[in-house]
Design a protein that fits this description.
Blueprint (H helix, E strand, L loop, with lengths): L1 E8 L3 H10 L6 E6 L19 E8 L1 H18 L4 E7 L5
Antiparallel strand pairs: 1-3, 1-4, 2-3
């Protein structure tokens, strides 16, 4: 199994959900109000100075679905530029 964590601007949450549906993902965990500062983007800290925030969407899927999701996020990044969405992939050793 693989885990894919997609960190994305809250404004494109619907697009990320549609991306997952197009990859056949039916189950995910969504984290709202994710705050942080990236290397290439403005801070998203939910403050008066930096009002934006991100969401994190986590899926655990088989290797082929993970590859499809990573490719689709890469395509989305190409359309949006570097700010807006990023995905991370890692191996799940065990789940209960």
């Amino acid at each position: 199994m693989k885990a894919v964590l997609i960190l994305h601007n809250e404004a494109i949450d619907n697009e990320v959900t549609e991306l997952l549906e197009s990859a056949g993902v039916k189950h995910y965990t969504k984290f709202t109000n994710v705050l942080g500062k990236g290397e290439l983007s403005e801070p998203h800290l939910n403050t008066e100075v930096w009002p934006e925030k991100n969401y994190g969407t986590l899926v655990v899927v088989d290797e082929s679905a993970a590859k499809a999701i990573m490719e689709k996020v890469g395509q989305m990044r190409g359309k949006l530029g570097e700010e807006g969405v990023k995905a991370f992939l890692w191996q799940i050793e065990q789940a209960t």
